[in-house]
């Protein structure tokens, strides 16, 4: 049947469901360059405004998978388990989690991304380790995975190429925050990657794409349904992203904190979420008797980390980069810190140089924000609350604008209940 982009756009604009043929055609034609970016942008906006039903989302995802190659880990002797976060501020969990789950017996093929906007990217963080390489061939990836049990690297160009084009387009056309588009983007990559099981960390709150628990639950159940339909055992945790995870947001700052966790220390929320996700991954991989808390405490997760970093050219003993300039924000009053906003801190870290405004921009390894208190902590007027780090001090003023309204301090004695780290589970 002859197809054209305008009739596909009109169908969704007029709130009708796209047919299977329309979906297959438009994804294929866009990947080949026959449908223009401006036409796909219009269709994305119609999808954002008018939604898609479950059949359309499933077909859209299948068409994105079919746009490229599928990987195959069936030669590995261990069961595969992967994790994907929908993106947040200070979300360094992949760094301790992948070696931890590998130390417990699973193979962890972690294809990760770069940060854009206010959310950080795992590859940008790891690239602050001197020598570490994100780009591996499929053969190299399999060899690191086989040799160490875990690999964290960039998805190759052949994997879901439709998503690469679509995501870049959505990012600059205000169409990221659409549940059908987020679900199909994440799940097409994960299904094409060929993992046997998948744990999704769906973030909720100011620093996440999903601002409410209801939206996060809908996104989670859409993705769990897609994974299950493709034979991937998939579960999702809904986790808090109203305040940054841990005490750092920024590339080398977050690597340092992750190594603290692997050494048996680190902030309580990072440890709690790492262990919760590790237990889910090990369960989904059929390794129910593994004990991730023990693997953190006895150094076996750290051993895998060191081997994994070295296998990708990195020096696990190298001194990490430190930004040339620091600026301290002090508490303006004494009392209890009742709010420290994830989005504002993410924007500040980004403006300091930890993130990029355009895809081709470089990031500063040492830039970011260090937090000296978390919601619920007592603070004293004049004590350091945040330290801003950058190589380029002219960025401080713009970053400080973002931090200005980022926190609330209530009088001492004010009752305060911190949000739990894990807010829900969908399977
Ligand atoms: N992460 C992705 O890979 N895709 C999205 O659309 C959002 C977050």
Task: Determine the oligomeric state from the structure.
Answer: single chain
The CATH architecture name of the largest domain reads: 3-Layer(aba) Sandwich
CATH superfamily of the largest domain: Nucleoside phosphorylase/phosphoribosyltransferase catalytic domain
Please estimate the helix content: 40-55%
Write a concise keyword list for the protein shown above:
single chain; 427 residues; alpha/beta; Transferase, Pyrimidine Nucleoside Phosphorylase, Chain A, domain 3; Pyrimidine Nucleoside Phosphorylase, Chain A, domain 2; Aldehyde Oxidoreductase, domain 3; 3 domains; 4-stranded mixed sheet; 4-stranded antiparallel sheet; globular; binds uracil
Structure commentary:
It is a single chain. By secondary structure, the protein is of the alpha/beta class. The chain has 16 helices and 13 strands. The strands form 4 sheets. It has a 4-stranded mixed sheet, with helices on both faces. Helix 2 packs parallel to helix 4 and helix 5 (about 95-105) crosses helix 14. The radius of gyration is 21 Å and the shape is globular. The model has no long low-confidence stretch (mean pLDDT about 95). Uracil (URA) binds near residues 87, 167 and 181. The site of uracil has 8 residues, from helix 9.
């Amino acid at each position: 049947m002859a197809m054209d982009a305008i009739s596909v756009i009109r169908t969704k604009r007029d709130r009708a469901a796209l047919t299977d043929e329309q979906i297959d055609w438009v994804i294929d034609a866009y990947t080949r360059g026959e449908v223009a970016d401006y036409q796909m942008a219009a269709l994305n906006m119609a999808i954002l405004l008018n939604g898609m039903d479950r059949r359309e989302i499933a077909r859209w995802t299948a068409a994105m998978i079919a746009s490229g190659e599928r990987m195959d880990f069936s030669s590995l002797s261990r069961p595969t388990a992967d994790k994907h976060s929908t993106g947040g501020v200070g979300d360094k969990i992949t760094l301790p989690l992948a070696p931890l789950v590998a130390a417990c017996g699973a193979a962890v093929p972690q294809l990760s991304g770069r940060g854009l906007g206010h959310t950080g990217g795992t590859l940008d963080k790891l690239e602050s380790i001197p020598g570490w390489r994100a780009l591996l061939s499929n053969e190299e990836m399999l060899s690191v995975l086989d040799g160490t049990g875990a690999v964290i690297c960039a998805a190759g160009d052949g994997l879901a190429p439709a998503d690469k084009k679509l995501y870049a387009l959505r990012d600059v056309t205000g169409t990221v925050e659409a549940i059908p588009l987020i679900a199909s983007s994440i799940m097409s990559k994960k299904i094409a990657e060929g993992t046997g099981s998948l744990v999704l960390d769906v973030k909720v709150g100011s620093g996440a794409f999903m601002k409410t628990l209801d939206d996060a639950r809908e996104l989670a159940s859409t993705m769990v349904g897609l994974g299950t339909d493709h034979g991937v055992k998939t579960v999702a945790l809904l986790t808090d992203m109203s305040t940054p995870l841990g005490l750092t947001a920024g590339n080398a700052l977050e690597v340092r904190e992750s190594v603290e966790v692997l050494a048996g220390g680190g902030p309580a929320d990072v440890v709690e979420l790492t262990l919760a996700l590790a237990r889910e991954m090990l369960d989904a991989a059929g390794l129910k008797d593994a004990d991730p808390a023990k693997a953190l405490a006895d150094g076996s997760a750290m051993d895998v980390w060191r081997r994994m970093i070295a296998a990708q050219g990195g020096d696990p003993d190298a001194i990490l980069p430190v930004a040339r300039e620091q600026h301290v924000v002090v508490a303006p009053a004494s009392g209890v810190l009742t709010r420290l906003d994830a989005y504002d801190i993410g924007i500040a870290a980004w403006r300091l140089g930890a993130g990029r405004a355009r895809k081709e921009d470089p990031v500063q390894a040492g830039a970011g924000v260090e937090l000296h208190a978390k919601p619920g902590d007592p603070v004293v007027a004049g004590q350091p609350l945040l330290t801003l780090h950058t190589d380029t001090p002219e960025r401080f003023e713009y970053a400080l604008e973002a931090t200005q309204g980022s926190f609330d301090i209530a009088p001492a004695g004010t009752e305060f209940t911190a949000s739990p780290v894990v807010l829900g589970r969908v399977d």
